Amino acid sequence: MRSGPAAALAAVAATGLVWAYVLLGGGDYEPSRVADPCRPRPFRVTQAIGGLTERLALSALDGAACDLRVSREQLVLALGDRRLPGDPSPTRRDAALRSGLRRALDEAQRAGRIGGIAAFVLRQAIEAAPVGALFDQFLGAT
Amino acid sequence: MPTADRTRTAALVLAVGLVLADSSIVTLALPDVLRQFDARVGGVAWVLIGFNLALALTSVPAARLTDRLGAARLYGAGLAVFAAASLACALAPSLGALIAARCAQGVGGAAAVCAALELLAPAVGTRQRALGLWVGAGVVGTAIGPALGGALTETLSWQSIFVAQVPLALVALAAGPRRERGLATLPLQPVHPPHVAANAALGLLSAALTAALFLLVLLIIEGWRHSPAIAAATVSLMPVAALAAGRLGRRLAALARALAGTILIGGGLAALSLLPGAGPAWTLAPQALIGLGLGLALSALTDVALRERTPEALHGAWTIGARHIGVVVGLLLLTPIFTADLQREQRRAEQAGVAVLLDAPIPPLAKLDLAGALADRLRAAGDRIPELGPAFARAPTSLRRAPAFRRLQTNLEDQLDRAGTDAFSRSFMAAAILALLALVPIAGEHRRLELA
Q1: CA distance A118 to chain B (A)
Q2: B381-411: per-residue pLDDT in tens?
Q3: Taking CB atoms and an 8 Å limit, are A73 and B415 in contact across chains?
Q4: Does this chain's domain B1-176 share its CATH topology with B194-452?
C-alpha cells in the first residue's frame, strides 16, 4: 500500500477526534472565571437566619475588591494569609473595605432590605469603626 | 529452531523488553516517590531523566565495545550492572541515591540492549527476524512499562518495581548466550553513517511520547486523584493498540507506517490537550490513536535506521540513543511547562472554589466552618491538588445530608477536576507539536524511506 491513503486515513482519524473533542467543549474545560466585582450582583437574600448579614458582607467584599482592582475571591484569600496583587497598605485596604460596606448599604437600601434610619446608623458606624481590625479579628476567630 | 536457541532468543528478548520498559516503568510510581522523599515534580522527573540520559549517552560507546569485549561478555556485564543497580534503586535512602542508581541502570541497560541486537541474529538465524524481535521487544517494553509499574506500585510499593527486575535480569543473564556464534562477526567500524532523518524522527516522537506516558499518568493520579491501579489499567490501552498496529501495518511500506503513525501520535496528543471532561474514559480514544501510532511509527523508523546498514549493533545503538535523548528532551521541555501551569491552575481553582463557596446556599456559619476546613486541606496538600472529602466529612450529619451541601462538594470537586485537566493542556499540545515536527525529517527522506 502506498503512503498516501494510509497517511490520509490517519489524518482523518486524528482531526476527527480533535474536532469531536472541541465540539464537546474541550477548549473551554477550565476552572470557572470569577465575576467582575465592579458589576453589581442581584441583592438576593436566600437564608432566613443571617442571610441579610451575609448578603451585606458579600456586597461589601465586591465593593472593596472593585476599589482595590482585584477579584472578590482574591480579596477573601488575602484576608486570610495571602498578599494581594499590588500589596496595598493597611490604610488603603481599610479604605477599600469602608467603600465596599458603603456600596453594600446602598444596594440593600435600593433592594428595600434596610430602612432609612438603620442605613443612616450603619453608615455612621462604618465611618467610625476600625473596619480592617474588626475584619481581621473576625477572621482570626473563625 | 533448536530449544537452546529458543531459550537464548527468549532471554535476549526479555532483556531488551526489561531494559526499555525501565524508561517508563517508574512513571506510575513517581507520585509515591514524590511523597516518600517529599520532593518536587521537577526533582522527581530526574528519576526518569537520569535513566534515559545514561542510556542515550552510553549506547553508542557500548556498541563500539562489543568489538573489543565480545557481545556475549558485554551482554552479561551489562545485565549484571543492571540487576545490581535495580537492587540499589529499591534500597535507595534518598532521591539523590535513587537517581544515581537509575543512571547506573541506564549504563548497564545500554550495554545489554546493544549487545542483544548482535546476539539475536545467530540465535534466530536471520538478521531481518532478529531486527524485528529487537524492535518489537523495545516497543512492547516501552508501552507496557507504565501499566506494569503501576500494578506493582498499587499492590506492593514503588520499590517492588526494582526488586522484581533483579530476578528477571538474572534469568535473562543465565539463559542468554555465553559466547558469540556465526553471524555476529561483522566489522565494528561503521561502514554506513547513522540514518540522520530516521533517528531525528525517532528522537522527536520519543520526546512526544514522553508526554503520553509521563504526563497522562500524572494527570490521572495527581490531576484527577485516581489510584495507580486505575491509571495502570487506563494506560494499558496504549500497548494493546501498539500491538494491534503491528498486525495492521504488515502490508504497509515503511514510509506509510512512519507517516500514518506520526500523524496518529500528533492527533492523539492534540486531543489530550483538548479533553472535554475529567476522567480516564476521556483519554481512551486519544490513547488508542497514540498506541496505534507508536506501533506503526517506531518500528518503521527503527527498521529504516537499521536496514542495510552495518554494523547493526552500532546503528541499533544510534536508534536507542536518539530515542532516549528524545525522552530526556521531552521531559526537560515539558516538565517546566507543566509545573508552571499546575501552579497557575491551583490559583485559578482556589479563586473559582472561593466563588462557589461564597455563593453556595448554605448557612453562613457552616460556610465559614467549611472554609476553615478547606483551607487546612489546601495547606496540607502543598503543591498538589487537595482531596476535599475530609473537609466535608467534618460537617455535622444534618448538614452533610442537605442537597445544597452535597451540590457544593460536587461543584468544588468539578473546579479541581477542571484545574487538574487544564494544567496538562499546554504540555500535551507542546508534545503534539513535537510529534508533528517528526514529519519534517520523514518528508525530507521521502525517497529513501519509500525505497526502504
Answers
A1: 22
A2: 776 777 788 888 888 888 888 888 888 888 8
A3: no
A4: yes
